[in-house]
Amino acid sequence: MNNFRDTYLKLKSGVQLTKEDIAAIRAAVFGRSEVLSDYAILSFGLSEPKTTRNLGRLKELAEVYINQRDDDLLKACLTAGCIYFNSPQYFVDISQKVLEEEDMYLFEDSSFVAGTCISKQARMERSIELLSALTMYAKKSLDKDEMILCESLTRSALESATGSKCITSKEVKQFMDHAKLDSIEFDMNI
């Protein structure tokens, strides 16, 4: 049994993997989804090239894990696809399903990555529809008193709208009400 946590930590610290490590990652990701670990998926995202085949497999796995309600593995798929492969367009629909879930605790960890995924794609496309969806999800979390998620989604919306990654917590908190969330738009100044 491969310890994919150690493999992931090697990759994060810049250590070169052996051919055996890379083969084990591929075998795990393209093997049976019910025995896959989150670290294997994350290692896959860091070690493999961004190809249609690899993105397709991550999306296929994400769909399996959203249906199985497996937050850890879904988060790993979204992280590998949206962040490591920088391909949010493949995962926007799944990210929206995550944020549309009524029980916000079901996908508690995936929600944060889903917000980032939608934010990146909204910015790339300058999609008013996706930016509006982000603010809608932020309002939903605000209404449910999920302040940490609301802050994260508000930050994602502001980053998408402004193109800035240097938004302070104080600036984010100023937008955490319905009227202010409705005022978020592309090319705005904070």
Task: Give structural notes.
With 190 residues, the protein is mostly helical. The protein has one domain. 68% of the residues lie in helices and 0% in strands. It has helices at residues 4-12, 19-29, 38-47, 52-68, 71-84, 92-100, 110-125, 128-143, 147-162, 169-174, 178-182. Helix 5 runs parallel beside helix 7 (110-125), helix 6 (92-100) packs across helix 7 (110-125) and helix 7 (110-125) packs parallel to helix 9 (147-162). The longest helix has 17 residues, at 52-68. The radius of gyration is 17 Å and the shape is elongated. The chain starts with a helix and ends in an 8-residue tail after the last helix. The relative contact order is 0.08.
How much helical structure, as a percent, in the residues? Answer: 55-70%
Number of domains: 1
Number-wise, the strands total 0
Number of helices: 11
Strand content: under 5%
Q: What would the principal axes of the Cα set say about the shape?
A: elongated
Structural class: mainly alpha
Low-confidence stretches: none
Order of helices and strands: HHHHHHHHHHH
SSE layout and pairing:
Elements: H1 4-12, H2 19-29, H3 38-47, H4 52-68, H5 71-84, H6 92-100, H7 110-125, H8 128-143, H9 147-162, H10 169-174, H11 178-182
Helix pairs in contact: 1-3, 2-3, 3-5, 4-5, 5-7, 6-7, 7-8, 7-9, 8-9
